[in-house]
Amino acid sequence: MQQGYIHIYTGNGKGKTTAAFGLALRAICAGKNVYIGQFVKSMQYSEIRLENLLNKVDISFGSLCIEQLGHGCCLDGVIDKEDIWMAQRGWVHCMKMLQSKKWDVMIFDELTIALSLERLEIDKVVQDLQIRNSSTEIIITGRYAPQKLIDIADIVTDMREIKHYYRKGILSRKGIDC
User: How far apart are the C-alpha atoms of 178 and 172, rounded to whole Å?
Assistant: First the structure.
């Protein structure tokens, strides 16, 4: 059994989800099964089409499952009971998926946002991650990674914005930013 590690991609810069999906694609091409749970997201971002694309390929790769566990990219800080319920239900579901031992790599996209917006309790998440199947690789993305999560991680990458065209009023571009 190979040891799995916990990765965190955080910071205010672009590329956290993109890096996680890149790792997912690499793992799938190596024959690994990958689960991606997206917290606080419900829009049909371009990357979620990867699951359909891989299902059409006739070559034997690992498998991919992507599930959206939120109902919008709510970043205004307003705590909505449905947001809390969905995040908590999503985390319980993710832990069941982890316990199934089907997944070699599990990505919890924007989990740190759910934590920072108090949709989930950090102590519960840390406890669950510490008793996980030790062979599963865990990747967590999102801004504002809490110190308690950073403390248990094996790899932490802080993506720092230096310059972004968004500051000039250029919105997200399909296939590049969303």
Answer: 6
Closest CA to 108 of 2, 3, 10, 1: 10
Q: Which of 71, 91, 90 is nearest to 82 (CA)?
A: 71
Rounded to an integer, what distance in angstroms lies between the CA atom of residue 123 and that of residue 90?
16
What does the mean pLDDT of the chain come to?
87
Q: Taking the model in full, what pTM does it have?
A: 0.88
Report yes or no: 103 and 31 within 8 Å, Cβ to Cβ. Answer: no
% of the chain exceeding 70 in pLDDT: 83
Tell me how far apart the alpha carbons of residues 75 and 158 are, in angstroms, rounded to a whole number.
20
71, with CB counted inside 10 A (0-12, 13-18, 19+), is middle
Helices (H), 70-135: 81-99, 111-116, 122-130
